[in-house]
Amino acid sequence: MSDRLRTFVELGVLDTTANDAGGSHAYRLSPEGEAFFPVVVSILMWGERWFPASGGPAVVATHRACDNPFLPELACSACHGGITRRGLRIDTGHIDTGHTEVAATSHA
């Protein structure tokens, strides 16, 4: 476990602070870890839906503000409308790499 925690610290996902109770460390999400939180919750909930444990849920997420079960949903940050795969367009960035593209030609 300590190797995994050390890896997350090295990746910048976790920050570590000395614990007052003797030489141990406390781990907290870094800003990068906080940004990754929605991904982790979505993966946990996906696993519960598609690979449920035989003895009941392995993970239960509850929204503290309303005490109801939490299911992650994607929403547009501008209009707050729900996002589906078909309702989202992803374009490549227009980055000038300084390279000139050459059209492929066939020598048949």
What does this structure look like?
By secondary structure, the chain is α+β, with helices and mostly antiparallel strands. The protein has a domain at 2-69: Orthogonal Bundle (Arc Repressor Mutant, subunit A). Helix content is 28%, strand content 13%. It has helices spanning 2-11, 31-50, and strands spanning 14-18, 25-29, 62-63, 68-69. The strands form two sheets. The chain has a two-stranded antiparallel sheet. It has a two-stranded antiparallel ribbon with strand order 3-4. A hairpin with a 4-residue loop joins strand 3 and strand 4 (68-69). It starts with a helix and ends in a 39-residue tail after the last strand. The model has no long low-confidence stretch (mean pLDDT 84).
- The portion of residues forming beta strands comes to 5-15%
Helical run tally: 2
Please give the largest β-sheet: 2 strands, antiparallel
Corresponding CATH superfamily of one domain: Winged helix-like DNA-binding domain superfamily/Winged helix DNA-binding domain
**From N to C, what is the helix and strand string?**
HEEHEE
- Please identify the top-level CATH class of one domain: Mainly Alpha
